[in-house]
Amino acid sequence: MQPRNMSMSGVVDLAAVKAAGEAKAKAEQARAEAARQGGGAAGAVPPGALVLTLDEAGFEDALQMSAEVPVVIPFWSERSPASVELTGLLERLAVEAGGRYVVAKVDVDASPLLVQQFGLQAVPAVFAVVAGQALPLFQGAAPEDQVRDTLDQLVQIAEQRFGITGLVVDTAAEAGAPAAAAPAGPYDALLEAAMSALDAGDLAGALQAYKNVLADDPGHAEAKLGLAQAELLARVQGVDPQAVRTAAAADPKDVQAQLAAADLDLVGGHVEDAFGRLVDTVRVTFGDDRDTVRLRLLELFEIVGSEDPRVVKARTALARVLF
Length: 323
Hints:
57% helix
């Protein structure tokens, strides 16, 4: 059986390419920090977490994981030497990729329901799941350079479309060394000042304090989250909720009106309404307008938290719209 490449036609929106830089820079900053510290960075995973064995019971977990990192799923069997070889190659490349994707291998003889769910007819076969959306990668054996090219495209799509940049790998765990304790950051006073400013309603002061941290450490996760929260509050400060909602109801394609209404939804605790509104706006817009809405939605995902089930559900809905 001849290998079949994943089709990228219609998947990559050229207008979204410019958005990849921010997502990629965030991941590279985290990886560089982990390397500088010799591993042990907050949120880092051991290299062994990059290769998993997937069965029917764990498939839902793989779907949820795909909101944070592309999941490559090779179907294999001991009865097929070609599938064993391809799966081994994917395992090696996953470690080389340093967390940009994970491999979750499926033994077809042990998981017949997954075989049926994916409509599998023969092995080797490789799929990927990104933001809950399954994509075919290969059907049949494939040379290493072709596999590498396809995986590079997969990583690029995950970054450009969804801001999914993968996992940070604990290099200390790979070397067998104990994970280093995270040093006390030099930004405690600034972060405390930002929180105090927020509590006092001083949004300008909070914004400046977070920006001061990020000017020195662009990858500082707590400061980035705090800045996003403060910017959200600043956007809704002084607006007329009734006027905003009236404008949004009058024109579903009015990007600025929908963004403003989604901000109000989120601040008011209506998280699913905010997400649903922006997913619907992505559905009816194109080009730069669509990209603007998508990026705001990703920002709101970060504010709520990537592990929140409402975020996972909304990522899946976004994937369906974009694909």
